[in-house]
Amino acid sequence: MTHQALGVVGSYPLLVALWLLPLMGAVICWTFGPQLRATAGWLVSGLVGASFLLAVLCWHDGTQSAAGLVGANQPLFSWMTGFDFGLLLDPLSLLWTFIITGVGFLIVFYSIGYMRGDPAFARFFAYMSFFVFAMLTLVLSDNFVGLLVGWGLVGLASYFLIGFWFQRPTAVAAARKAFVINVVGDVGVMFAIFVIIANVHSIGFGAAFGAAGTLGPGIVLTICIALFIGAAAKSAQVPLHTWLPDAMEGPTPVSALIHAATMVTAGVYLIARCAPLWNVSHEAQLVVGTIGGLTALLGAILGTAQWDIKRILAYSTMSQIGYMIMGVGTGAYEAGIAQFFTHAFFKAQLFLGAGLMIHALSDEQDIRRMGGLRKKLPFAFWVMLLGVLSICGVPGFSGFFSKDEVIYGALQHGHPWLDGIGIVTAGITAYYMFRLFFVAFLGEYRGEAPVHAGGPGSWIMNVPVAILVVPSVAIGGALLFGGDASPWAHFFAPLFAAQGRPMTPVAPVTPAISENLTSAIVVIVVAIGFLIAWQRYATTAAKRDAVERLRREAEKMPAVLTNLFYFDAAIDAIFVRPAQALGRFCAGVFDPHVVDGAVREIVAIARGLGALVRSFQTGLLRAYALILVFGAACFIAYYALAGAPH
Amino acid sequence: MNVPIADYVTLASVMFFIGVIGVIVRRNPLIMLMSVELMFNAANLLLIAYARLWLQNVGHIFAFIVITVAAAEAAIGLAIVVTTFRPEKYVDVDDIRALHG
To answer: Which of A70, A98, A106, A132 could be cross-linked to A464 through a Cys-Cys bond (beta carbons 3.0 to 4.6 Å apart)?
Structure first.
């Protein structure tokens, strides 16, 4: 089968350059880390920033459309027939590239301040740069194998960075857990690729998408479910989400870049990229949409029961990715991608804001030991406030527009109950985010560690956060407002209209309630969530005896929430323990008795034969002579009786 | 004088079995070597007798080869006996059992 391009085939040196620059940074930092010292941070932020500028320069190539082809396709090399590797920059990957390099640049820059004084400063930036390269490989590949390579490499980078402080046993355990669960997902993607190769004889996206309609529903469903296992593991969807909260052991900028803004949204990218496959399998859409909705709800509920500021944000990330997966799963691709887009900004902002707080409080992460930070950390206060307003979907903020689109999209594509879940989750989100905000910033300071804000060089951390505030507040209104006439819709229109790539599986139904009414309901539910949080944490009485109230709340926390819905226990009981039991059986029974037993039997036979033969070796010369004579006599007797040989 | 072939065969057989019994029964390695020589000579006698009977020279050639081998064997055998029994007062092959398995 010939190579079926999705974009205009040509030579795009800028695209190749933007892809390889971060790799260069990683190699330099790995090789010359000790010599570079603090320069490593500036070098990597410079390279990632240059990568972002190149992405801007590639805007025209990425959005061009001609004869049903959208974007730019740069062939790299061909392995064998049907196995062509190349880069594809179309509106979808362009968007992801912007976030990876743009938000990535801000976070890497912020890290210069955050990681200052860490003995492994250069190693950190080598990993960060390597991650950016791996993530770009993932989103820029024009084939499934290239995507899988990037998919595996971002998992590796995530493993490196979660376990960055490898002196902490908890960090090492969290890194291992993340890696193992991600490998489960990698196997799913690999299986999907095998099925695609067996049926299409090509690894290119174009060939697979072109054949989507003729493959048969069973095969497409198999591919979609296998791909979704990968997406679920990478994007922390139930039941493969348990690694994400633990991943917060890594440095906070890592949580912001990898475990909030980019890597965990790779599953969303995968589903959006493979939309032509999902469109022909209604069952797959149902599964993905349901899991997404479930994850959004569970993540939000678990977020209400956490005390660690980063874990609250981690569960909130899980919940928000649930929204995205619900969007792309139900066929509302534009909405799911929009949610990814705004989430990258406000979640990065929230994590970096949390980083400011953690940094100022000497690595304190428990919100019960914060409080009263409004006056002590005014900059972090405003950053977190705007971030919280955006994530809660307060009208006018970015989060409002994207969340609205997802919730309404579920309704439009015929899943009213997912719509309900989305609305309820929005309310819970408002509750736990304002809980975090009120407990940390209002009342009196309850911690022991001295608060040291500011200081020389704090602008390195403050400036990126301040820049992030702008899109996190305003980009939703600027790009998403206006429905089909919005800049967002114009940006994606050529991609969605491209030949053989129907982005809308079924004609959207006109729901009984209008989009404005849905928005109004969401706003009311969010207001209710906010009021409950206000009532519990922000009233004068609540602020007065905050210590006592928080202690009581922690004590009365239902067991099902403190045990995180028993997911870890269930995975332990279903997979880990049987695997350990199998290992013990092999080590204790099978190996010594079957494997070693067979070897021992062979040895015993040889030894017995040896003993038999040895008994003839008397060492007596005359005995040998006798045996010789006896043998000769036997020969003579034989021939005497049988006659001479002829 | 024409000695019948049967007489040669009889004499050779007697010499050979004296040699065999000597090797098996005697414990002195020197006597054993001499017995081996006796067996060689029995074989040589047969070779020469049949060469004469059938008028073929192959038998003679073989006899010479046997003599050569016997000379070498005697030289090596005596050397072994000397090195093996140098520390001993008496020579007895039953005393050396180094090759016992």
So the answer is: A106
pLDDT confidence bin for A410, thresholds 50/70/90: confident
- pLDDT of A2 reads 46
What is the per-residue DSSP string for B34-88?
HHHHHHHHHHHHHHHHHHHHHT-SHHHHHHHHHHHHHHHHHHHHHHHHHHHHTT-
Does residue A616 belong to the interface with chain B, where contact is any CB pair within 8 Å? yes
Residue showing tokens 């190699």:
A27
Distances (CA, A) of A365 to A3, A305, A356, A410, A542: 52, 15, 11, 36, 21
Report how far residue A132's alpha carbon sits from residue A105's, in angstroms, rounded to the nearest whole number: 10
Portion of chain B with pLDDT greater than 70, in percent: 98
Q: What is the ipTM of this complex?
A: 0.84
Question: How far is residue A235's CA from residue A229's CA, in Å, rounded to a whole number?
Answer: 10
Q: What is the pLDDT of residues B2-16, one digit of tens each?
A: 788 999 999 999 999
Question: Of residues B90 and B82, which shows the higher confidence score?
Answer: B82
Average pLDDT over residues A210-235: 89
A612 touches chain B (CB under 8 A): no
Q: Does B96 touch chain A (CB under 8 A)?
A: yes
- Contact between A422 and A330 under an 8 Å Cβ cutoff? The reply is no
B93 touching chain A per CB within 8 A? yes
Q: Which of chain B's residues have a Cβ under 8 Å away from the Cβ of A615?
A: 101
Of B24, B25, B99, the CB nearest to A619: B99
Q: For A111-144, what is each residue's pLDDT tens digit? A: 998 888 888 888 999 999 999 999 999 999 999 9
Q: Are A621 and B93 an interchain contact pair (Cβ–Cβ within 8 Å)?
A: yes
Å from A626 to nearest chain B CA?
6
The minimum CA-CA distance between A624 and chain B, rounded to whole Å, is: 9
For residue A613, the chain B residues in CB contact (below 8 A) are: 101
What distance in Å separates residue B101's CA from the closest CA in chain A?
A: 5
| pTM for this prediction | 0.79
Closest partner residue to A626 (CB to CB) among B24, B94, B97 is: B24
- The answer to whether A224 and A284 have CB atoms below 8 angstroms apart is yes
Chain A nearest C-alpha distance from B1 (Å): 32
- Token couple for B62: 């073989």
Q: Which pLDDT value is given to residue A52? A: 95
Which of B23, B94, B101 shows the shortest C-beta gap to A625? B23
Q: In A, which residues are within 8 Å of B32 by CB distance?
A: 621
Rg (CA), chain B: 17
Alpha-carbon gap, residue A215 to A228, rounded angstroms:
18
Assign a CATH topology to domain B5-95. Helix Hairpins (1.10.287)
Distance CA A12, CA B83 (A): 90
Tens of pLDDT along A590-620?
998 899 999 999 999 999 999 998 888 888 8
Return residues 52-91 of B near A (CB < 8 Å).
none
Percent of chain A with pLDDT over 70: 96
Judged by CB atoms within 8 Å, which residues 111-140 of A form the interface with B? none
- Let me know if A209 is exposed, middle or buried by CB neighbors in 10 A (0-12, 13-18, 19+): buried
Whether the per-residue pLDDT at A239 is higher than 90: the answer is no
Q: Sort out which chain A residues have CB atoms less than 8 A from B93's CB and list them.
A: 620-622
- Say which range, A201-205, A299-303, A455-459, A521-525, has the weakest mean pLDDT: A455-459
- Closest to B97 (Cβ–Cβ): which among A613, A614, A620? A620
Query: Which residue is it, tokens 């520390």?
Result: B87
**A426: its two tokens:** 């929005």
CB pairs under 8 A between A and B: 34
Domain boundaries, chain B: 5-95
